[in-house]
Design goal:
The chain has no helices and five strands. By secondary structure, it is mainly beta. A five-stranded mixed β-barrel has the order 1-2-3-5-4. A hairpin with a 3-residue loop joins strand 1 and strand 2.
């Protein structure tokens, strides 16, 4: 249910250790473990899109800055 959703990085997502994002799933805001889809860090506060879920971890990509 999380794939395709947009959210915000809660704890910086680092390539080596991951991080956490806040995403609304089934009408409820939750905080989930996340990994970057690329090998780049995604800073706290950055908007992201969930590409997929692997073993309970959200795989995310940063959205273009607006």
């Amino acid at each position: 249910a999380a794939a395709g959703q947009e959210g915000v990085v809660y704890l910086t997502v680092r390539p080596e250790s991951g991080g956490q994002v806040q995403v609304e799933v089934q009408g409820r805001l939750g905080t989930f473990d996340a990994q970057s889809s690329s090998n780049r860090e995604i800073a706290t506060g950055r908007r992201v899109r969930v590409l997929e879920v692997r073993a309970g971890v959200l795989i995310v990509e940063p959205l273009a800055a607006s």
